[in-house]
Design goal:
By secondary structure, the chain is an alpha/beta fold. It is 46% helix and 13% strand.
Length: 231
């Protein structure tokens, strides 16, 4: 399809790489590896608690109120405390092993490869992510996503997290892209979409959970495959 765009910027986690399923697989493995079933009856409840805690702490990290090193361990400390487990050594081990295993998982959001194969011949593709550089590089390499993308911009390197305009500016300026020719695709309404909108570039909201909202955005889709109708 002929469009005004030539530069497409994607978020990574939950937009292309299925964070929730990959994380759940990893946590399940670690739960039984460390024999947590002897003190926590339901591993699914533990995983649910972890994901809630992780979201809260990532929000603090995004606002600059927590460092990545603290985040990596604290999310497990707090999760364990919900079940009466106060073991800093276990939390540290869990944090290290989680970071070792999870990025190597390869479950992608449905239609990821299909839509990238469709877009790559016609557009220059990029990633903008709040994730850690080394971790995101492992994810992309293991899933064979790296071959599709010209650039990877991370908040860790830039020093600003989405939705701050600085990270979008850095991503575009690094590849000499203009706002008019660029579009941002992501799953987080506040972080990806409203951040891009405030910076002044068009957006595609991947609303897989059908979040109800009143924001005026450029495009909204429920599945990546719908990008064929836009781009």
């Amino acid at each position: 399809m002929l469009t005004k765009y030539s530069q497409i910027f994607f978020d990574l986690d939950r937009t292309l790489w299925d964070f929730d399923r990959n994380s759940t697989e990893t946590l399940t493995e670690l739960f039984f590896r460390h024999n947590l079933d002897t003190s926590i009856k339901n591993h699914e409840e533990f995983i649910s608690i972890f994901h809630e805690v992780n979201l809260e702490l990532w929000d603090l990290y995004r606002r600059g109120e927590m460092t990545k090193d603290v985040l990596r361990v604290k999310r497990f400390q707090i999760s364990f405390e919900q079940f009466g487990i106060n073991d800093d050594s276990l939390a540290a081990d869990f944090g290290d092993e989680y970071l070792e295993i999870s990025p190597k998982k390869t479950i992608l959001i449905p239609h990821t490869k299909e839509i990238l194969d469709y877009l790559a011949p016609h557009y220059t593709l990029h990633i903008i992510t709040n994730g850690f550089l080394a971790t995101q590089q492992i994810k992309m390499k293991n899933c064979s996503l790296d071959k599709y993308f010209k650039s990877l911009t991370t908040s860790e390197v830039v020093g600003h997290n989405k939705p701050r305009p600085e990270i979008f500016h850095k991503a575009l300026s690094f590849v000499q892209a203009t706002k008019d020719e660029s579009i941002m695709i992501g799953d987080d309404l506040e972080v990806d979409i409203l951040g891009a909108k405030k910076y002044g570039i068009d957006q595609v909201f991947l609303n897989r959970d059908q979040l109800v909202h009143t924001e005026n955005i450029t495009h909204e889709i429920k599945s990546l495959i719908e990008l064929k109708e836009i781009l």
